[in-house]
Amino acid sequence: MKIIDKAGFGKRFKQAFKDATNTEIADKIGRSNAAITNYIKGRIPDLEILDEIAYSTGCSIHWLLTGEGSQYVEQFYLPSPSVPLAENEKQAVTQLAKANNQSVDQTLHELLTEALKARGLLPQKPTPSMLLFRQDIKLVALPMIGAISAGQPIRYFKEQKEVLVADVFIISQEGYQSFVLQIVGEDFTDEGFSDGNYLICCDNKQPQSGQVAIVVIDGEYTTVKRIFFEGPSIRLQPTNGKGDGELFPPDRIAIIATVTGVQRNP
Q1: Which of 32, 38, 113, 144 has its CA 20 to 30 A from that of 24?
Q2: pLDDT digits (tens, 9 = 90+) for 68-101
Q3: Domain span including residue 7
Q4: Phi, psi values for residue 57, rounded to 5°
Q5: Is the pLDDT of residue 119 over 70?
């Protein structure tokens, strides 16, 4: 692991939150103004707080600590739906957030994650900081079956090759197979992907609402979007979270695969 650049951490910390004031940053990650001042001066937070900073800004913890590599994390997080709460529920969540010195958003995220894991609906998956410091991450060979570019049909390779991907991106579900597609071109830049990125996919054509999927619109236009099932319609949301997305009737959408992760091509 690269040596932590304490001198530059404060500058990158401030940059991660862009033009936000110290008070706005404190509210966003559930910390005191004094703590924010210390971080800007170069004090390194503990892992839990680094996780919250990464979750709130989308920045890579490795970049925050060392100044090296990509600034933004190329990994999908859980969807962040708007959760309607009754007044007593809001009070309970707010009290819990204050007791744990967290933001309300982080507390809701943890409660949702715990509930999904308890029901066996969410695989155990490490957070960005765990990926940075854990030594037990394994590389697994998966077949790269083709290439994908925005608006074009998937180009399937005649001769498939194997590529190594982190095992945390692979969802083990009986009856489903994992494979890799490679991004070609810069048309997916607005989605948060770059030319050459590996999309780790599962051939599950029935993703849960909020997951990222490869879809074809009107039998012609191929894209990668976060998919939401809203009544009789399907909403395709940009994976970068910008914009309200677009609603489609189901007969215009064909789901090709569920995306479980994205990895840079070394």
Answers
A1: 113
A2: 777 775 443 333 344 567 777 777 877 787 777 6
A3: 1-76
A4: -110, -20
A5: no
Report CA 144 to chain centroid distance, whole Å. Answer: 21
Taking only the tens place, the pLDDT of each residue in 1-21 is: 345 667 789 999 999 888 789
Q: Both 107 and 209 in a single domain?
A: no
Q: Strand 221-230 vs strand 233-237: parallel, antiparallel, or unpaired?
A: antiparallel
In a domain, 231, yes or no: yes
Give the pLDDT score at 265: 67
* Count of the separate structural domains present in the chain: 3
Instruction: Judge contact between 111 and 35, C-beta under 8 A.
Output: no
By C-alpha distance, which of 2, 135, 137 is closest to 60? Answer: 2
Please indicate, yes or no, whether residues 169 and 239 belong to a single structural domain of this protein. yes
Shared domain for 251 and 179, answered yes or no, is yes
- Spatial CA neighbour of 125 closest among 137, 133, 142: 137
Task: Looking at the structure, tell me whether residues 184 and 107 fall in a common domain.
Answer: no
d(CA 181, CA 94): 42
How many CA atoms are closer than 13 Å to the CA of 253, on its beta-carbon side?
24
Query: Quick check: is 27 in a domain?
Result: yes
What tens digit of pLDDT does each residue of 140-193 get?
Answer: 888 999 998 877 888 888 887 888 887 777 876 677 889 999 988 877 776 677
- The answer to whether residues 216 and 150 touch, using CB atoms and an 8 Å cutoff, is no
Tokens matching residue 62: 């490795």
What is the Cα–Cα distance from 233 to 246, expressed in whole angstroms? 10
Is the model more confident about 65 or about 117? 65
The amino acid at residue 14 is K
* Token pair for 116: 């999904």
Pairwise CA distance, residues 90 & 87, whole Å: 5
Length of the chain in residues, anyone?
266
pTM given for the model: 0.50
